[in-house]
Amino acid sequence: MAIRKIRVMGDEVLRKTSKEVKEMTPRLKTLVEDMFDTMYEAMGVGLAAPQVGILKRIVVIDTYEENEKFALVNPVITHVDGEQIGEEGCLSLPGKTAVVKRPDHVICQAYNIDMEPITVEGHGLLARAICHELDHLDGVLYPDVAEEPVRDVTYEDEIEEGE
Ligand code: NI
C-alpha cells in the first residue's frame, strides 16, 4: 500500500491525453492499488491515473454505495441520457467547487484489472463520477465544462456536506 502524490491544477500532466493500456502488468496492478489508497486517504470518490502522474487510461471509482467500486481500464462511455446539475469537486483542485451539468445515466465499457471486459452502468453520482474521471484521461478538468466559474468551498458548504 502506498499513497501517491496527487497532482494539482497547473501541473501540465493533467492536460495530457493518456495512453491505452495494452497489457496488465504487476506494475500497473500496483498502480491501481495505490490509486485506491490515495483516493481513500484523500476522501475522494474517484481518481484517474494522470492525477498521480501516470498517463495511462485507468480510473478508480468508489461512491461508497453497494457494488459501486470499480477500477476501469481503457474505459469508454457508450451511452448517455438524462441530465443532472450539481456541484462537483476534484482532488486536483482542493477546496474548490463549481456546478457542472452531466448526464444522469451512463453506460461505460471497460476492462477490469485482469483485462476482462466489463460493463458499468451508473445513475446519479456514479454517472457523474464516470464522466468526470474519463475526462481526466483526455486532459479535461471540470472547470472546462462547468456552468459557472470555480469558487472556493465555503464553511457553509462543508456543514451541508456533513449532514
Ligand atoms: Ni478529478
UniProtKB/TrEMBL annotation:
Fe cation binds at C90, H132, H136. Binds 1 Fe(2+) ion. Gene3D superfamilies: Peptide deformylase (3.90.45.10). SUPFAM superfamilies: Peptide deformylase. GO terms for molecular function: metal ion binding; peptide deformylase activity. Its cofactor is Fe(2+). One of its GO terms (biological process) is translation. It catalyses: N-terminal N-formyl-L-methionyl-[peptide] + H2O = N-terminal L-methionyl-[peptide] + formate. The keyword Cytoplasm does not apply. The active site is at E133. It is an enzyme of class 3 (hydrolase). The keyword Protein biosynthesis applies. Keywords: Hydrolase, Iron, Metal-binding, Protein biosynthesis. Pfam families: Pep_deformylase. Its EC number is 3.5.1.88. Removes the formyl group from the N-terminal Met of newly synthesized proteins. Requires at least a dipeptide for an efficient rate of reaction. N-terminal L-methionine is a prerequisite for activity but the enzyme has broad specificity at other positions. Belongs to the polypeptide deformylase family. PANTHER family: PEPTIDE DEFORMYLASE. This is Peptide deformylase. The lineage of its organism: Bacteria, Bacillati, Bacillota, Clostridia, Lachnospirales. The gene is def.
